[in-house]
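Input.
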Amino acid sequence: MDKAFNRVFKKRVPNHLEHILKTLAPFRDEIKGFVVESTYNWYWLVDGLMDAGYSSAHLANPAAIKQYGGLKYSDDQHDAFFLAQLLILGILPQGYIYPKKDRPMRDLARKRMFLVQHQTAHILSLQSLIQRCCATKIRANVMRH
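Output.
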């Protein structure tokens, strides 16, 4: 899409970096930025494009994007042009793209936090059940062992 919101190119491409790079090659000099939605599997695409020299990566935060109510279509094709419009207008809600070397530690810390939260929820649920049924309080430390 150009700055006047004209669609310059439209094509559905398989999720394979080689196909994507080949498709973008004719437009390489004109591309000022690209947007990738922050989903569970965006690392490979952003890393691959950046390694290939496409340096202006933008990670869209889908939770912060409010599409207008009159939207007639919602699919990958229309969403892509909507995200391009937000980028051109400078109003794209973005997430931070962690450096590749820092992601494993961040992902591990997030997984640990998730597991600790679930462990706590299960302990509290079990404590509540025992207290309701037996009128007995059991401390969390006792339940952990």
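Residues 7 and 24 are 14 Å apart (CA to CA).
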